[in-house]
Specification:
- This protein has 568 residues and is of the alpha/beta class.
- The chain has four domains: 2-148, Jelly Rolls (Sandwich), CATH 2.60.120.10; 154-214, Glutaredoxin; 225-332 and 467-565, 3-Layer(bba) Sandwich (FAD/NAD(P)-binding domain), CATH 3.50.50.60; 347-463, FAD/NAD(P)-binding domain (3-Layer(bba) Sandwich), CATH 3.50.50.60.
- It is built from 14 helices and 28 strands.
- The strands form seven sheets. Strands 12, 13, 14, 15, 16, 17 and 28 form a seven-stranded mixed beta sheet that branches.
- InterPro entries: cNMP-bd_dom, cNMP-bd_dom_sf, FAD/NAD-bd_sf, FAD/NAD-binding_dom, Ferredoxin-NADP_redctase_2, RmlC-like_jellyroll.
- It holds the Pfam family Pyr_redox_2.
- Its EC number is 1.8.1.9.
- Keywords: Flavoprotein, Oxidoreductase.
- Residues 29-142 form the Cyclic nucleotide-binding domain.
Amino acid sequence: MYEELNNALPASSVPPFRPDLAYPDLTYEMLDRLRAYGTVEAVPDRTTLFGRDERQVDMFVIIEGSIEVYTRAKQNHECFLQLLTPRQFSGELDLFNYQRTLTGCRTKGDSVLIRITRPQLQHLMRAEDDIANLIMQATIWRKLRLIEEQKGGVILVGQPDNADYLLLESFFIRNGYPHQTLEVHRDCPVMPSVVLADGRVLQKPAIATLADDLGITELPDPKSVYDVTVVGAGPAGLAAAVYAASEGLSTLVIEGIAPGGQAGTSSKIENYLGFPTGIFGQRLGHRAHVQALKFGVRFAISRNAISVRPNGGLHMLVLEGGLEVQTRAVVVASGARYRRLDLDNYLRFENQGIYYAATAMESLLCRDHEVIVVGGGNSAGQAAAFLAGVSAHVHLIVRAKSLAKTMSQYLVSRIESSARITLHVNSEIERLDGDEKLEGVSWVDRRTGARTTRPIKNVFVMIGAQPNTGWLFGTLRLDRKGFVVTGESTGFENSRYATSVAGIFAVGDVRSTSVKRVASAVGEGSVVVSDVHRYLADHRDLVAAAPDSALAAIQSASSAPHNDEISL
């Protein structure tokens, strides 16, 4: 059943709602155990326990009486969702983050409830495994219901092939935020708008502004000192966060768009261990995100780090907007950004025909049309195989003479055997045509000089990436390509992931000489936590303000082999 739940985590479509999993009944024995984590309260009829848009609400377990769950529908009208009865409990995924709630709760009839506060809930999630899994399962399915029924969210208005519209929709999908879409006829040009549940309209909002308005942003407290701050929420960063938090360290993750990183935009990952039929990149990212929330990781979404500097034995991270974060250790997992083709008009066609991800959202634009995929790596091969199932034909363009050295053999075999994929080796695009949107593409075979022009409107560019290290120039040692240099000859300690500055580590694609694979990134993110523990244990003078749980974890780090006990 838990595997079914995992498979239900959103990719680009939402599975049918399961009320039996969303609203389970606790056993009487579980109910008795829960009393130790909260306080029993007698609550009168029609008492609001918490309203929509509140943060850090408590969880309520029903002993007697009932609770009405409601949200907002269009034009700020109240919408009834569910009646909770004895041995059931309140809360959605916002129980495990600091985002605003999408639902509200009030009693129906005089009720007797167990109130479990946030600190008590975190203790519960660590100590009571069977109850913790039941709570996680229920809260995920409740969030999926809001997405499926498009309740409690927003309305995105615009034209689906508009670049700004696609950016906003991608933000909603990747963050799992409930939303509806309203397509405007192309003869009526309008900038994309977001209609909020309270009736306000945001015209072409910036991502940070939108995230703040919706409560998706979880801005960290500048007065707090975190044990470890992870910059980047790709596979490496999420793995580091899960392992750090599960071992008792106060953990913050800083992410500019949404959890998942580049892997979150992959149409399908088929060679990741444990998933014989493959897994959508976005689904993998959602699973890891939820797993991190379970262990109490804080996420600062929609804010990029712009600098880091030493600060009295700690590290001071500065985020966009000027917000500062204090932390004892830093794990740089900021990954890489997509490389672009050196062509005239290229920037004009980004998200107007040129894309860097081939997911179900982009595939809607390609149905029954010819498309081009540029690149010879696994990401390009996965995209070509995926798009061959929905488009009229896929042209795979690579500069090399073959795919043998850059692509996994299973993908090469699939491409060679597909009648809907044509491989063009020794070739490259030389011209893009169109006015506001891409309308045609020309490419040349450098070996023969033959040129081809086709009325192709969608090109997927997957030619590698450049490291997201601009914010680290002048702070860490970087190689000639901008990747972070780590290891014995450069690092402040004998660690594969140590950088040139004490207390700062680097993992995943951002690290020089790293293997650009999801499995490798996850491995590095999980292993680096043992180095963080050792660093904190060797610098005990920096933990004076640490929470008791984190201090205990740090003090026992040198004697407890934590990594062997945690399974990702």
